[in-house]
Design goal:
Length: about 140
């Protein structure tokens, strides 16, 4: 029987290692991978582990920067859930046809979000969660 696993794709976020730790605290194996990993390499990982999902981390870049990190779009076709956090969320929206724009000002600090708990990945979370935000771009049109 294969061990359940989550891959964390690190886009340079300051909290990527904490995401991995939280996953491991739930007794699920996690591994950090670089954004230039290919879908084929991830499928090879799936031959050793039962891949349950991929998390695209945050990072300091804007998706509109010329040298901004990207990932292989084919990871969206592997057949596992993909969760984007901050930069990862913006990159996913961009890849899937949403629109991302530069915010009028940088935003930093603690805020409250409303959680759509219909999705299995968010099961067990409260309707409202307190989070830390640090970003200069925002998704303003969903895919």
């Amino acid at each position: 029987m294969k061990t359940d696993a989550i891959l964390v794709m690190d886009f340079g976020g300051q909290y990527s290692h904490l995401i991995m730790r939280r996953i491991r605290e739930m007794n699920v194996y996690s591994e950090m991978v670089p954004p230039d990993i290919t879908a084929e390499e991830i499928e090879g990982f799936s031959s050793r582990y039962s891949l349950r999902g991929i998390i695209l981390s945050g990072g300091p870049s804007s998706i509109y920067e010329n040298n901004a990190p990207r990932c292989d779009r084919k990871i969206l076709e592997i057949g596992v859930p993909v969760l984007g956090i901050c930069y990862g969320h913006q990159l996913l929206a961009h890849y899937l046809g949403g629109r991302v724009k530069k915010s009028e000002k940088m935003e930093y600090g603690v805020t409250q979000i409303t959680v759509d708990r219909r999705d299995l990945i968010l099961k067990g979370h409260g309707r409202r969660e307190t989070i830390w935000m640090s970003h200069g771009d925002t998704v303003f049109a969903m895919p």
